[in-house]
Specification:
This protein is mainly alpha-helical. It is extended, with a radius of gyration of 21 Å. The longest helix has 25 residues. It is built from 6 helices and 5 strands; from the N terminus they run E-E-H-H-H-H-E-E-E-H-H.
């Protein structure tokens, strides 16, 4: 199926949606329904299954946005976002808040974020970009050393 001038595997989208809906049904069936007389409709909107459904829709939206963005733009932004993530990790050491026994949260405005979650994706993208750009020297020690440096 051609979608937005790119090859798009519609079966993959259908399977992701079907698995997410099955997951939503499993979560709903495993959860303890609220003991209220407000009706089934209001109970669903307070359940974990509803949260799962909202995050599923958010994830599908993010997947489409990533699909529209060109790979060159992602490769370019990797080298801008990677140092920003490193700075956020340093900020956690300096001004991070401690929750559940670990100092890993940054409070920005009214939100608390974990920069390590963003770094997981950024490290993967940075390593992929580096491996693709310096492919000819992949057997050298320098290549190995830079890869380890990027990953740490």
């Amino acid at each position: 199926m051609k979608l937005f001038k790119k090859e798009f595997h519609s079966g993959l989208l259908v399977m992701a949606i079907v698995l997410s809906i099955i997951g939503c049904m499993v979560i709903y069936s495993a959860s303890n329904p609220l003991k209220t007389h407000q009706g089934l409709f209001k109970i669903f909107f307070r359940s974990h299954a509803f949260k799962h459904l909202m995050f599923m829709l958010l994830g599908i939206g993010v997947a489409f946005i990533i699909f529209w963005v060109s790979q060159r733009f992602i490769a370019f932004m990797t080298w801008i976002v990677y140092p920003a993530n490193v700075l956020m990790l340093i900020a956690v050491l300096i001004v991070g808040s401690i929750r559940m026994g670990a100092q890993r949260w940054l409070s920005i405005g009214g939100f608390s974020i974990q920069p390590s979650e963003f770094c997981k994706i950024t490290v993967i993208l940075a390593l992929a970009q580096y491996f693709q750009s310096d492919f000819d020297n992949r057997k050298s020690f320098h290549f190995f050393f830079i890869s380890i440096l990027l990953a740490s």
